[in-house]
# Entry
Amino acid sequence: MERYAWKATVKEGMLEEYTRRHNEIWPELVAVLKQAGIANYTIWNTGNELFGYYECADYAARIQAESEVVDRWNAYMQDVMVMEMDPVTGAQPKMACVFRLD
# Structure
């Protein structure tokens, strides 16, 4: 199982809306994430900064990249957050792990 982390920024004044949308996450998006083998998915914030972490199967990126539901969710979230995307993969750039305590 791989570990994956990402970061993004909530637009000013939009944290409550960002949270509301995640509290009402689409069932079809949850299904895609589970199909991709994603587990322990958690998002934290401090101020307007977001940090996301999940564990996933090695095929997770491919499943998400091929999903129309993920594309719709990303478009839906554009008005409340800013997330830099990797131009090669079309996904969030992977953060490098610099320490791990097991």
About this structure: Strands lie at 2-10, 39-46, 49-56, 81-82. The chain has a mean pLDDT of 91. The longest helix spans residues 68-77. The radius of gyration is 14 Å.
